[in-house]
Design goal:
heterodimer, A: alpha/beta, six-stranded mixed beta sheet, four-stranded antiparallel beta sheet, 23% strand
Chain lengths: 263, 558
């Protein structure tokens, strides 16, 4: 199957709600990620980012609301949605007793990836991530960064039109981080969409076309950098200032001052 | 400073103590699980106590030879428990001292090697010996009742048991610390595992070759005592377990306390503790450092072949490779092989000629009951291999869940992967045992087909329960085997087999009796048999579908 030929209409999230017992992790959020767009999803710890990502990846069932991925409804056609989605989690859980190459073949088979696409992409990506010499070693001997790079390789080799990423740069060296950024940009340039959750405001500022900030399970604001600055009334500030302003972390200034005065 | 150091020792035990507290007495909820486990242990202890009490009382009723035989078993039990504790401690010590996930936090903290040793010693002693202590207490206590000892025996028994547990842990830790300096940690773990398995296999064969069924024949006691003496005598005087056995035997027989043996029993754990601490000071850091270097190794695997998209083939391949590359998994096959040999050997030793019924009737009856026995073996092995296979996916299970492969299909592939070897095993058990029993005619086919059907059902149930009770955080499959889910699976699968055999007894009896008498099959008997088969299929399918669906739902929402 050539995923490049699939319709690329991005992601639509409508009135999504997820509760854990009495705690509402996601409270009626609606978002839209267009094809060819890198969408940043920011928020403080516990705001609901990972829950949203897990729902989009088909790992968690929402209580109410709809998710459409490339035109398919996640609740009604989960297999088609997953076929169109690559998922890069924040923690690289892998099968320790498989080699890198075996792991990639296993994942490719799960997605029924064609032999041509597999062979075309895997060698290129392994070379890009300096994993060629390690592909026949057991994953249990990989470092954290190598595992993360292997996950990246598995996600990009699939050529899915949509990629969902949770904290992409954790454990990556500067060279690999640069490569990943370029891969993301290239994916968007060729019409793919990326939903990216990150704590790194530099990454978000550099990569994302649009950014949503989530706080206590609700979308605080959505827009490009310019509109976010306007909303925070900080026309010349960087994303960090904007983020702190919009996530109501004003008290942080006092904390920083107190820390500066500590001997 | 010394206060701070003692404080550190207490602090080092906090993770273990608090984890245990949170596990058994969770804040804000009634500890129903802990109470359940407590009741289960109590029931099991009562059963062990009553069975041992009856056996020892029976021996005593025979003659002086019976008393000697019971004391020989007493000595052998002490030696076995001691050696098992050492092996169990060694396997646990490699993981907890060198490969544990909390090592990076603990070893980078400002604590001394003796403090570390203290921490690992206490946790290893508790983890590896609590079960042995609890379940051997009723065993040894029953001797006190039969020998009419005063309450002092109970105190001496508890002291001796705790001392043995401490000595075994110290010795196990000491040997492990030395071995890690010779081999890399993972290889040491494998070596200890193989040794433990060899020991387990040896014990199985020793016990089987002892022919315990001969214990009901008084004329064979002489042979048994001779046999037991050969096994336990040469080692006994030189190991702590021998001191424990001799010390308590003397008290049981003459109510005398051998102060030298008591001194040895009390002082050995301390002597071994300080020896272990010394070894730890000398060799721990080089060994730990080496265990970090040996992570994974540089072994390369496999030659590259052309990639072809084939989901089921790759799921099979993944399962097989993970199994074949994990020594703690495939090495269990030796134990299974030993069990199969002993299982089949039992049929050779059956005293069929002593039975009052016709030999043909008895062999057919055994073949029918053998369906349940073989089924129980399949159930136990499913609890060990099939049930934990879903949870064993660990964190990596999200690859399956976020892929287009549905959980239903994934479970089906898993089922096919496990059902093939299990079918082979169950057919081996049934066909060979039927051959040993000279079974022919309808009983051969009944036992063959029903066993096949039970095997498939049990494997499917194992997967269904495994999906419902999947624990993706457990690192050790053996631990999963003792979980609530595994117990529920074993109980359900066993109950199902009991029901199948119970309701099948009458139809099978009618068919077999007519066949043995006249070598013909009657149509009405066949109706009964068909009804039994259909009811069994309906019950089994109902259970499998229910637990598969429940498992798919649970995995989908986990």
């Amino acid at each position: 199957m050539n995923h490049k030929k699939l319709p690329k209409t991005g992601i639509i999230i409508e009135n999504l709600v997820k509760r854990y017992g009495t705690f509402t992790a996601i409270d009626n959020i609606s978002l839209e990620v267009n094809a060819g767009q890198i969408f940043g999803f920011l928020g403080p710890n516990g705001a609901g980012k990972t829950t949203t990502i897990k729902i989009l990846a088909g790992l968690l069932k929402p209580d109410t609301g709809n998710v459409l991925i490339n035109g398919y409804n996640l609740a009604e056609e989960p297999v088609m949605c997953k076929l169109h989605t690559g998922h890069i989690p924040d923690r690289p859980f892998l099968y320790e007793k498989l080699t890198g190459d075996e792991f990639l073949r296993f994942i490719a088979s799960l997605y029924n990836l064609s032999t041509e696409t597999f062979e075309k992409n895997v060698d290129r990506l392994l070379t890009l991530f300096d994993l060629t010499d390690w592909q026949d070693h057991l994953i249990e001997s990989y470092s954290h960064g190598m595992r993360q790079k292997l996950i990246m390789t598995s996600a990009f080799m699939l050529e899915t039109p949509t990629i969902i990423v949770d904290e992409p740069m954790v454990g990556l060296d500067p060279k690999s981080a640069r490569i990943v950024k370029e891969l993301f940009k290239n994916h968007a340039r060729t019409g793919g969409s990326i939903f990216l959750s990150t704590h790194s405001l530099e990454v978000a500022e550099e990569l994302c076309d649009r950014i949503a900030i989530i706080l206590n399970g609700r979308i605080k604001t959505v827009g490009d950098m310019e509109s976010l600055r306007k909303e925070a009334s900080l026309e010349t500030s960087d994303l960090e200032e904007v983020f702190l302003e919009l996530t109501e972390a004003e008290e942080l200034t006092e904390v920083i001052e107190a820390l500066k005065n500590m001997d | 400073m010394s206060t701070l150091r003692y404080g550190t020792r207490r602090t080092l035990l906090l993770p273990m103590l608090l984890s245990a507290k949170n596990r058994f007495f969770p804040t804000g909820s009634f500890p129903i699980k802990s109470i359940g486990v407590g009741i289960f242990c109590l029931v099991l202890c009562t059963v062990i106590f009553n069975v041992t009490l009856r056996v020892i009382t029976y021996f005593h009723a025979q003659d002086e030879l019976g008393v000697i035989l019971s004391l020989k078993i007493f000595q052998m039990a002490w030696i076995l428990i001691f050696v098992m504790l050492i092996f169990s401690c060694m396997v646990s010590a490699v993981s907890s001292v060198y490969l544990s996930q909390d090592n990076e936090i603990v070893f980078s903290a400002p604590i001394t090697t003796p403090e570390l040793y203290f921490m690992r010693y206490i946790s290893n002693t508790i983890y590896t010996s609590w079960m042995m202590i609890i379940f051997s207490l009723p065993l040894f206590a029953s001797y006190g009742i039969v020998f009419h000892t005063p309450p002092l025996y109970w105190l001496l028994m508890v002291i001796t048991l705790v001392s043995m547990a401490c000595s075994a842990t110290c010795f196990g830790l000491l040997v492990t610390v030395i071995l890690i300096n010779i081999f890399p940690a993972r290889h040491t773990k494998d070596i200890i595992l193989y040794l433990s398995l060899c020991f387990g296999v040896l014990i199985l064969f020793l016990i089987r070759l002892l022919k315990p069924e001969d214990m009901v024949y008084f004329d064979k006691y002489g042979f048994l005592i001779d046999h037991l003496s050969k096994i336990s005598k040469p080692a006994a005087p030189y190991i702590p377990a021998g001191w424990a056995a001799n010390f308590l035997s003397l008290y049981l027989l003459d109510l005398e306390i051998d102060w030298l043996l008591l001194g040895l029993i009390l002082l050995t754990p301390f002597a071994l503790y300080f020896l272990g601490e010394g070894a730890m000071k000398m060799w721990f850091f080089p060994g730990y450092s080496k265990s970090q270097e040996s992570f994974g190794g540089n072994t390369k695997f496999g030659k590259k072949r052309k990639y072809l998209p084939n989901t089921w083939q790759w799921v099979f391949s993944k399962e097989f490779k993970i199994f074949a590359r994990d020594s703690s998994e495939w090495s269990q096959l030796f134990m299974i092989a030993a069990l199969v040999v002993i299982y089949l050997y039992n049929f050779k030793l059956l005293p069929i000629e002593r039975a009052s019924f016709s030999e043909e009737f008895i062999t057919n009856l055994i073949a029918f009951l053998n369906i349940g026995l073989a089924g129980f073996i399949i159930t136990s092995l499913s609890a060990r291999f099939v049930f934990p296979s879903i949870g064993a996916e660990g964190g990596a299970f999200y690859h399956i869940r976020s892929s287009p492969l549905s959980i239903r299909r994934f479970l089906m592939y898993k089922f096919l992967f496990y059902v093939i070897p299990f079918t082979f095993l169950s057919l081996t058990l049934i066909i060979i045992s039927n051959r040993i029993l000279h079974i022919e005619g309808p009983m051969w086919w009944i036992s063959f087909l029903i066993n096949l059907f039970i095997t498939w059902t049990v494997v499917a149930l194992g997967l269904g329960f495994g999906a419902v009770y999947a624990d993706f955080k457990t690192e050790n499959k053996t631990v999963t085997m003792g979980s609530m889910g595994a117990v529920m699976f074993i109980l359900t699968a066993t109950a199902l087999q009991v029901v199948i055999i119970f309701i099948g007894a009458n139809p099978v009896y009618r068919i077999v009796r007519r066949w043995l008498n006249d070598h013909v099959l009657n149509l009405s008997d066949l109706y009964f048999l068909t009804a039994w088969v259909l009811i069994s299929i309906a019950i089994s399918l109902g259970l499998v579908i229910y637990y598969f669906r429940k498992g798919i739902n649970m995995l989908g929402n986990s």
